[in-house]
Design goal:
- The chain folds into two domains: about 35 residues; about 300 residues, 3-Layer(aba) Sandwich (Rossmann fold).
- About 30% of the residues lie in helices and about 15% in strands.
- It contains seven helices and eleven strands.
- Strands 2-1-4-3-5-6-7-8-11-9-10 form an eleven-stranded mixed beta sheet, sandwiched between helices.
- Helix 5 links the parallel strand 5 and strand 6.
- It is globular.
Protein backbone atom coordinates (compact mmCIF):
# COMPACT_ATOMS: atom_id res chain seq x y z
CA UNK A 1 0.00 0.00 0.00
CA UNK A 2 2.81 2.42 0.87
CA UNK A 3 4.48 1.64 -2.47
CA UNK A 4 1.23 2.39 -4.31
CA UNK A 5 0.81 5.67 -2.40
CA UNK A 6 4.33 6.74 -3.28
CA UNK A 7 3.77 5.80 -6.94
CA UNK A 8 0.52 7.80 -7.02
CA UNK A 9 2.26 10.85 -5.55
CA UNK A 10 5.00 10.72 -8.17
CA UNK A 11 2.44 10.37 -10.98
CA UNK A 12 0.41 13.34 -9.71
CA UNK A 13 3.50 15.52 -9.36
CA UNK A 14 4.61 14.53 -12.85
CA UNK A 15 1.25 15.53 -14.31
CA UNK A 16 1.31 18.89 -12.50
CA UNK A 17 4.88 19.46 -13.59
CA UNK A 18 4.15 18.70 -17.23
CA UNK A 19 1.18 21.08 -17.17
CA UNK A 20 3.36 23.91 -15.85
CA UNK A 21 1.41 24.29 -12.62
CA UNK A 22 4.22 23.09 -10.37
CA UNK A 23 7.75 24.40 -10.65
CA UNK A 24 10.61 21.97 -11.30
CA UNK A 25 11.88 22.45 -7.75
CA UNK A 26 8.69 21.02 -6.30
CA UNK A 27 9.40 17.28 -6.15
CA UNK A 28 8.67 14.65 -3.48
CA UNK A 29 12.41 14.44 -2.83
CA UNK A 30 12.88 17.88 -1.24
CA UNK A 31 11.58 19.42 1.97
CA UNK A 32 9.89 22.40 0.31
CA UNK A 33 6.15 22.75 -0.17
CA UNK A 34 4.74 22.56 -3.67
CA UNK A 35 5.26 25.94 -5.30
CA UNK A 36 2.32 27.13 -7.39
CA UNK A 37 3.59 28.99 -10.43
CA UNK A 38 1.30 31.81 -11.52
CA UNK A 39 1.50 33.61 -14.87
CA UNK A 40 3.39 36.88 -14.82
CA UNK A 41 1.67 40.26 -14.99
CA UNK A 42 1.74 40.29 -18.77
CA UNK A 43 -0.46 37.19 -18.87
CA UNK A 44 -3.31 39.02 -17.19
CA UNK A 45 -3.22 37.64 -13.66
CA UNK A 46 -2.37 40.84 -11.83
CA UNK A 47 -2.91 44.43 -12.83
CA UNK A 48 -0.25 46.89 -11.77
CA UNK A 49 -1.17 50.21 -10.17
CA UNK A 50 -0.21 53.45 -11.88
CA UNK A 51 -1.23 57.09 -11.66
CA UNK A 52 -3.77 56.41 -14.42
CA UNK A 53 -5.38 53.51 -12.55
CA UNK A 54 -7.79 55.94 -10.87
CA UNK A 55 -9.70 58.50 -12.93
CA UNK A 56 -12.08 61.29 -11.98
CA UNK A 57 -15.07 62.20 -14.14
CA UNK A 58 -16.77 65.48 -13.25
CA UNK A 59 -20.47 65.80 -14.05
CA UNK A 60 -21.93 69.27 -13.56
CA UNK A 61 -24.81 70.11 -15.84
CA UNK A 62 -28.20 68.64 -14.96
CA UNK A 63 -29.55 69.48 -18.41
CA UNK A 64 -26.72 67.49 -20.01
CA UNK A 65 -26.10 64.68 -17.50
CA UNK A 66 -24.00 62.51 -19.82
CA UNK A 67 -21.38 65.18 -20.41
CA UNK A 68 -18.28 64.85 -18.24
CA UNK A 69 -14.85 66.38 -17.82
CA UNK A 70 -11.84 64.29 -16.84
CA UNK A 71 -10.06 65.90 -13.89
CA UNK A 72 -6.34 65.22 -13.59
CA UNK A 73 -4.03 65.93 -10.69
CA UNK A 74 -1.59 68.60 -11.85
CA UNK A 75 -3.73 69.68 -14.82
CA UNK A 76 -5.10 73.05 -13.75
CA UNK A 77 -6.88 73.45 -17.07
CA UNK A 78 -9.16 70.51 -16.29
CA UNK A 79 -10.51 72.43 -13.28
CA UNK A 80 -11.70 75.42 -15.30
CA UNK A 81 -15.42 74.68 -14.90
CA UNK A 82 -15.19 73.41 -11.32
CA UNK A 83 -17.23 75.59 -8.97
CA UNK A 84 -15.65 75.82 -5.49
CA UNK A 85 -18.84 77.27 -3.99
CA UNK A 86 -20.68 73.97 -4.51
CA UNK A 87 -20.12 70.92 -2.26
CA UNK A 88 -18.44 67.89 -3.79
CA UNK A 89 -20.11 64.49 -4.14
CA UNK A 90 -17.83 61.57 -5.00
CA UNK A 91 -19.21 58.21 -6.16
CA UNK A 92 -16.96 55.13 -6.01
CA UNK A 93 -18.08 51.98 -7.81
CA UNK A 94 -17.37 48.47 -6.58
CA UNK A 95 -15.57 45.32 -7.63
CA UNK A 96 -16.26 44.28 -11.23
CA UNK A 97 -17.87 47.63 -12.00
CA UNK A 98 -17.00 50.71 -14.02
CA UNK A 99 -17.97 54.35 -13.68
CA UNK A 100 -20.19 53.98 -16.77
CA UNK A 101 -22.27 51.15 -15.27
CA UNK A 102 -25.96 51.71 -14.68
CA UNK A 103 -25.84 52.11 -10.90
CA UNK A 104 -23.26 54.92 -10.54
CA UNK A 105 -24.79 56.68 -13.53
CA UNK A 106 -28.36 56.27 -12.25
CA UNK A 107 -27.35 57.72 -8.88
CA UNK A 108 -25.72 60.71 -10.53
CA UNK A 109 -28.70 61.25 -12.83
CA UNK A 110 -31.12 60.96 -9.91
CA UNK A 111 -29.27 63.71 -8.07
CA UNK A 112 -29.54 65.92 -11.15
CA UNK A 113 -33.29 65.29 -11.45
CA UNK A 114 -33.82 66.29 -7.83
CA UNK A 115 -31.73 69.43 -8.30
CA UNK A 116 -33.93 70.57 -11.16
CA UNK A 117 -37.15 69.65 -9.34
CA UNK A 118 -36.20 71.48 -6.15
CA UNK A 119 -34.71 74.56 -7.77
CA UNK A 120 -37.08 74.70 -10.74
CA UNK A 121 -34.06 75.49 -12.90
CA UNK A 122 -30.77 74.07 -14.04
CA UNK A 123 -27.84 74.45 -11.70
CA UNK A 124 -24.27 73.33 -11.86
CA UNK A 125 -23.18 70.60 -9.48
CA UNK A 126 -19.89 68.95 -8.59
CA UNK A 127 -20.47 65.21 -8.90
CA UNK A 128 -17.28 63.22 -9.46
CA UNK A 129 -17.67 59.58 -10.42
CA UNK A 130 -14.40 57.79 -9.72
CA UNK A 131 -13.20 54.95 -11.93
CA UNK A 132 -10.80 52.27 -10.80
CA UNK A 133 -11.82 49.91 -13.59
CA UNK A 134 -8.32 48.66 -14.42
CA UNK A 135 -7.94 47.09 -11.00
CA UNK A 136 -11.57 46.31 -10.19
CA UNK A 137 -12.11 43.63 -12.80
CA UNK A 138 -11.73 39.96 -11.90
CA UNK A 139 -8.36 38.37 -12.47
CA UNK A 140 -7.60 35.21 -14.38
CA UNK A 141 -6.15 32.72 -11.97
CA UNK A 142 -5.84 29.04 -11.24
CA UNK A 143 -8.54 29.13 -8.58
CA UNK A 144 -12.18 29.62 -9.55
CA UNK A 145 -14.58 31.61 -7.41
CA UNK A 146 -14.80 35.04 -5.89
CA UNK A 147 -12.49 35.00 -2.80
CA UNK A 148 -9.13 35.21 -4.59
CA UNK A 149 -10.37 37.89 -6.98
CA UNK A 150 -11.67 40.15 -4.23
CA UNK A 151 -8.49 39.53 -2.24
CA UNK A 152 -6.36 40.69 -5.14
CA UNK A 153 -8.53 43.79 -5.63
CA UNK A 154 -8.49 44.49 -1.88
CA UNK A 155 -4.70 44.70 -1.92
CA UNK A 156 -4.99 47.91 -3.92
CA UNK A 157 -7.38 49.66 -1.51
CA UNK A 158 -4.55 51.54 0.20
CA UNK A 159 -3.11 52.68 -3.13
CA UNK A 160 -6.47 53.74 -4.51
CA UNK A 161 -7.41 55.63 -1.35
CA UNK A 162 -4.02 57.37 -1.30
CA UNK A 163 -4.62 58.54 -4.87
CA UNK A 164 -8.07 59.89 -3.98
CA UNK A 165 -6.66 61.72 -0.96
CA UNK A 166 -4.05 63.29 -3.25
CA UNK A 167 -6.88 64.37 -5.55
CA UNK A 168 -8.77 65.98 -2.66
CA UNK A 169 -5.57 67.70 -1.53
CA UNK A 170 -5.05 68.96 -5.07
CA UNK A 171 -8.51 70.54 -5.06
CA UNK A 172 -7.68 72.20 -1.74
CA UNK A 173 -4.35 73.51 -2.99
CA UNK A 174 -6.02 74.97 -6.08
CA UNK A 175 -8.68 76.62 -3.85
CA UNK A 176 -11.42 74.53 -5.46
CA UNK A 177 -12.41 72.93 -2.17
CA UNK A 178 -12.84 74.92 1.00
CA UNK A 179 -12.93 72.12 3.53
CA UNK A 180 -13.09 68.33 3.70
CA UNK A 181 -16.45 68.77 5.43
CA UNK A 182 -17.83 69.85 2.03
CA UNK A 183 -17.25 66.34 0.64
CA UNK A 184 -19.80 63.51 0.53
CA UNK A 185 -18.37 60.16 -0.59
CA UNK A 186 -20.74 57.38 -1.65
CA UNK A 187 -19.08 54.00 -2.12
CA UNK A 188 -20.40 50.55 -2.99
CA UNK A 189 -18.86 47.22 -1.92
CA UNK A 190 -15.09 47.56 -2.08
CA UNK A 191 -15.74 51.19 -3.02
CA UNK A 192 -17.28 51.69 0.42
CA UNK A 193 -14.14 50.33 2.07
CA UNK A 194 -12.04 52.63 -0.12
CA UNK A 195 -14.19 55.57 1.01
CA UNK A 196 -13.52 54.67 4.63
CA UNK A 197 -9.76 54.54 4.13
CA UNK A 198 -9.94 57.90 2.31
CA UNK A 199 -11.71 59.38 5.33
CA UNK A 200 -9.11 57.92 7.69
CA UNK A 201 -6.22 59.23 5.60
CA UNK A 202 -7.70 62.71 5.20
CA UNK A 203 -8.17 63.05 8.95
CA UNK A 204 -4.68 61.68 9.59
CA UNK A 205 -2.98 64.07 7.16
CA UNK A 206 -5.04 67.26 7.59
CA UNK A 207 -6.91 66.99 10.89
CA UNK A 208 -10.15 67.59 8.97
CA UNK A 209 -12.94 65.08 8.53
CA UNK A 210 -14.89 64.20 5.41
CA UNK A 211 -18.38 65.62 5.85
CA UNK A 212 -20.29 62.46 5.04
CA UNK A 213 -19.51 58.93 3.91
CA UNK A 214 -22.27 56.62 2.71
CA UNK A 215 -21.46 52.93 2.48
CA UNK A 216 -23.63 50.83 0.18
CA UNK A 217 -23.29 47.23 1.36
CA UNK A 218 -19.57 47.44 2.23
CA UNK A 219 -17.75 44.28 1.17
CA UNK A 220 -17.23 41.74 3.91
CA UNK A 221 -15.19 38.67 2.96
CA UNK A 222 -11.76 40.29 3.24
CA UNK A 223 -12.56 42.99 5.80
CA UNK A 224 -14.31 41.37 8.72
CA UNK A 225 -11.19 41.20 10.88
CA UNK A 226 -9.00 43.90 9.33
CA UNK A 227 -7.90 46.99 11.25
CA UNK A 228 -10.26 49.98 11.37
CA UNK A 229 -7.72 51.97 9.37
CA UNK A 230 -8.26 49.55 6.48
CA UNK A 231 -12.05 49.70 6.23
CA UNK A 232 -15.07 51.90 6.73
CA UNK A 233 -16.22 52.80 10.24
CA UNK A 234 -17.92 55.74 11.91
CA UNK A 235 -14.67 57.51 12.80
CA UNK A 236 -13.90 58.08 9.11
CA UNK A 237 -16.28 61.03 8.65
CA UNK A 238 -18.44 63.55 10.47
CA UNK A 239 -21.42 61.40 9.52
CA UNK A 240 -21.25 57.81 8.29
CA UNK A 241 -24.38 55.99 7.17
CA UNK A 242 -24.43 52.43 5.90
CA UNK A 243 -26.97 50.33 4.01
CA UNK A 244 -26.64 46.56 4.55
CA UNK A 245 -28.31 44.30 1.97
CA UNK A 246 -26.12 41.17 1.81
CA UNK A 247 -25.08 40.78 5.45
CA UNK A 248 -22.79 37.90 6.29
CA UNK A 249 -20.91 36.01 3.61
CA UNK A 250 -20.95 38.82 1.02
CA UNK A 251 -21.47 42.13 2.81
CA UNK A 252 -19.80 43.24 6.03
CA UNK A 253 -21.78 42.01 9.03
CA UNK A 254 -22.44 44.28 11.99
CA UNK A 255 -23.10 47.96 12.53
CA UNK A 256 -20.20 50.26 11.64
CA UNK A 257 -21.74 53.71 11.08
CA UNK A 258 -23.51 56.44 12.98
CA UNK A 259 -26.61 55.08 11.26
CA UNK A 260 -26.90 51.54 9.91
CA UNK A 261 -29.88 50.58 7.77
CA UNK A 262 -31.06 47.00 7.40
CA UNK A 263 -33.60 46.89 4.54
CA UNK A 264 -35.67 43.70 4.80
CA UNK A 265 -33.39 42.58 7.62
CA UNK A 266 -30.16 43.33 5.79
CA UNK A 267 -29.87 40.03 3.95
CA UNK A 268 -28.19 37.80 3.06
CA UNK A 269 -31.20 37.57 0.69
CA UNK A 270 -33.31 40.48 -0.54
CA UNK A 271 -36.91 40.03 -1.80
CA UNK A 272 -35.92 40.54 -5.44
CA UNK A 273 -33.36 37.74 -5.30
CA UNK A 274 -34.29 34.06 -5.35
CA UNK A 275 -31.51 32.81 -3.07
CA UNK A 276 -28.41 34.24 -1.38
CA UNK A 277 -26.78 33.37 -4.70
CA UNK A 278 -29.06 34.08 -7.66
CA UNK A 279 -27.82 32.52 -10.92
CA UNK A 280 -30.14 34.74 -12.95
CA UNK A 281 -29.56 38.16 -11.38
CA UNK A 282 -26.04 37.79 -10.01
CA UNK A 283 -23.15 39.18 -12.01
CA UNK A 284 -21.25 36.33 -13.70
CA UNK A 285 -18.70 34.91 -11.27
CA UNK A 286 -19.91 37.16 -8.44
CA UNK A 287 -22.27 35.15 -6.20
CA UNK A 288 -24.36 37.32 -3.92
CA UNK A 289 -24.25 40.39 -6.13
CA UNK A 290 -28.04 40.40 -6.62
CA UNK A 291 -28.79 41.26 -2.98
CA UNK A 292 -25.66 43.35 -2.62
CA UNK A 293 -26.37 45.52 -5.68
CA UNK A 294 -29.85 46.35 -4.38
CA UNK A 295 -28.16 48.74 -1.94
CA UNK A 296 -27.66 50.96 -5.02
CA UNK A 297 -31.34 50.72 -5.94
CA UNK A 298 -32.57 51.48 -2.42
CA UNK A 299 -30.29 54.48 -2.06
CA UNK A 300 -31.23 55.85 -5.49
CA UNK A 301 -34.88 55.56 -4.46
CA UNK A 302 -34.11 57.57 -1.32
CA UNK A 303 -32.62 60.28 -3.54
CA UNK A 304 -35.76 60.45 -5.66
CA UNK A 305 -38.31 60.12 -2.84
CA UNK A 306 -38.50 61.80 0.55
CA UNK A 307 -41.19 59.57 2.07
CA UNK A 308 -39.20 56.36 2.63
CA UNK A 309 -39.00 55.84 6.39
CA UNK A 310 -37.05 53.50 8.66
CA UNK A 311 -37.66 52.52 12.28
CA UNK A 312 -35.14 52.03 15.06
CA UNK A 313 -35.19 48.49 16.42
CA UNK A 314 -32.92 45.83 17.87
CA UNK A 315 -33.68 43.36 15.07
CA UNK A 316 -35.80 42.93 11.96
CA UNK A 317 -38.06 40.55 13.88
CA UNK A 318 -38.75 43.11 16.59
CA UNK A 319 -39.38 45.68 13.85
CA UNK A 320 -41.91 43.39 12.15
CA UNK A 321 -43.63 42.56 15.45
CA UNK A 322 -43.73 46.14 16.66
CA UNK A 323 -47.07 47.91 16.45
CA UNK A 324 -45.68 51.41 16.80
CA UNK A 325 -42.50 52.91 15.44
CA UNK A 326 -41.42 55.26 18.20
CA UNK A 327 -38.24 56.48 16.54
CA UNK A 328 -38.70 56.95 12.80
CA UNK A 329 -36.24 58.63 10.46
CA UNK A 330 -36.00 59.31 6.75
CA UNK A 331 -34.17 56.52 4.98
CA UNK A 332 -31.03 57.10 2.97
CA UNK A 333 -29.97 60.25 1.19
CA UNK A 334 -32.17 62.72 3.07
CA UNK A 335 -31.53 61.43 6.59
CA UNK A 336 -30.86 63.93 9.35
CA UNK A 337 -27.18 63.76 10.24
CA UNK A 338 -28.07 63.94 13.92
CA UNK A 339 -29.60 60.44 13.69
CA UNK A 340 -27.91 57.54 15.46
CA UNK A 341 -28.57 53.81 15.74
CA UNK A 342 -29.76 50.76 13.81
CA UNK A 343 -32.83 51.14 11.61
CA UNK A 344 -35.02 48.65 9.77
CA UNK A 345 -37.53 48.94 6.95
CA UNK A 346 -39.41 46.88 4.41
CA UNK A 347 -38.67 47.99 0.87
CA UNK A 348 -38.53 46.58 -2.65
CA UNK A 349 -36.61 47.65 -5.70
CA UNK A 350 -38.69 49.67 -8.13
CA UNK A 351 -37.41 47.35 -10.86
CA UNK A 352 -39.25 44.37 -9.33
Amino acid sequence: METFGYFLTVVCISILHSSGIVTPAATPFNKHKLAIKYPKRGNGLRRSFSKDSVKYFLYQNASNPENSTVLRIGDVGSLTSYNPSIPLTMIIHGFKQNYTDKHPQALKNGMFVVLIALLKKDKLSNIVVISWLGISLPFKNLHSGIPLSTREASKNIQRISKHIVEFISYLRNETKLNNAADVHIIGYGLGAQIAGVVGFRVKQSTGESIGRITGLDPSGPQHTYTALSEKLDKTDGNFVDVIHTANGPFGLAGSIGHVDYYPNGGGPTQPNCILPTDPIRDLPGFPGSCSSALSWDYYIRSVMEDNVKACEAKSFLSFKLGNICQNQITFGHRVSQSARGDYFLSIRSQES
